[in-house]
Amino acid sequence: MDNELQVKYDGAKILKFILYSAIGIFMFFVPITVNGKSSIPLDHIVNFFKGLTYFGPVYSGIVVTIGGLLPFIDKSWKKDTTTMIFSFIKLLGIVLIFMAIFNRGPAFLMADNVVPFIYKSIVITVTTIVPIGSIFLAFIVNYGLMEFVGVFMQPIMRPIWKTPGRSAIDAVASFVGSYSVALLITDRVYQEGKYTAKEAAIIATGFSTVSATFMIVVANTLDLMDNWLLYFWLTLIVTFVVTAITARLYPLNRKPETYYNNQEGDPEKIVKGNRFKMAYVEAMKTFDNAPSVIENIITNLKSGVRLALAIGPLLMSVGVIGVVLAEYTPIFDIIGYIFYPFTFLTRVPEPLLTAKAGALSIAEMFLPALLVTETPIITRFLIAVISVSEILFFSASIPCMMATKIPLTMKDYIIIWIERMILSILITAPILHLIF
């Protein structure tokens, strides 16, 4: 190790590393204000495209249609029973996207919070951000930034969350960017053999939550903006504490420590001694092995387009199915009884309503907020926190995960969601009683 640390610092290489890392950090992590709206540059680029005349209907229509037909074109639809079911669900996505584009369909589906909501708020945004984000992904993933940061974060990430130090980038990407950005990073790094199946599953289900920007929408809806800093930091802490626990519970603790496609993998070295020098060594090793920027951008863009095609029809169909079940059936009222003992034991005001509202989060994370707008502040605050910390919801994050190569099943999503909900209630409610 000592010999390895006798390194010669290459000025030109260091400047390139700093430049590429700065581009990645700026695009994914630095909020800037454009036209009065503060967000990361990547989000501003997405909003620019969304603002173009006819971009939304034309682009989303093409992506969902091609994505829905692809399994039948390449014959992959009959690979296994699960693939077969979801291939037909993707076909439903084509029907629903055209209903959305032409504003025609049954009244219960065309209500503002069903097909139009999934189409405008989720499908267009996510399918646009994934390929555009993939263009800039190389600057985060391929030129040593993750390795450099990972060496410093290793003593924190590994013992607490059982993930490599480099996964700290994923965690930050969610809160500053969004779950789609974070999942894009996670899936790419997993396929490159830098995460095991277990690590990728923990990161995807534990860090890939909605962005701080969307948290503001929730806080405004529940009249919590006077306590914004408390809400943000409490949600951040609860989300990460819950992830530390679920990483040690079934099913995540049973995920294999193997790499994608059984490749040899590139595990993170356990670092001792001079961390800065080792960070430099690891970063330069990755930098030296990286293709040119143009090659990387083309490769990542192809992956991003493939992911968008896989995600698009699932977002449209699974999202609508989830919201319809939430709006027009009692299924989530029934599911709410799973959480009622915990809201009752933690003395949350209106415990049954809170439990039922929380159950809606698996359909769409924003729905619980609409149910508790007139409740006491502890109830509103709890729902605001668990809507984010639960992470998994069918209108967006679950379809995004399903479209990646990360080895998670529907059973996994349901169990992890229930675990995260219960833990979020048990951790958050007592804190809120102390504060309020």
Fold and architecture overview:
It is built from 21 helices and 2 strands. The model has no long low-confidence stretch (mean pLDDT 89). The longest helix is centred in the last third of the chain and has 36 residues, at 293-328. 69% of the residues lie in helices and 1% in strands. The chain has one domain (11-435). A hairpin with a 2-residue loop joins strand 1 (32-34) and strand 2. The chain is an all-alpha fold and 436 residues long. It has helices at 11-29, 41-51, 55-73, 81-102, 107-110, 115-141, 145-161, 168-176, 179-191, 197-207, 212-221, 228-246, 275-289, 293-328, 331-336, 340-345, 351-359, 367-371, 377-389, 397-402, 410-435; strands spanning 32-34, 37-39. It has a two-stranded antiparallel sheet.
Question: SSE order in H/E notation?
Answer: HEEHHHHHHHHHHHHHHHHHHHH
Alpha-beta content class: mainly alpha
- In one word, what is the shape? globular
Helix share, percent: 55-70%
Distance between the termini: 53 Å
Strand content: under 5%
Summarize the structure.
This protein is mostly helical and 436 residues long.
Topology diagram in text:
Elements: H1 11-29, E1 32-34, E2 37-39, H2 41-51, H3 55-73, H4 81-102, H5 107-110, H6 115-141, H7 145-161, H8 168-176, H9 179-191, H10 197-207, H11 212-221, H12 228-246, H13 275-289, H14 293-328, H15 331-336, H16 340-345, H17 351-359, H18 367-371, H19 377-389, H20 397-402, H21 410-435
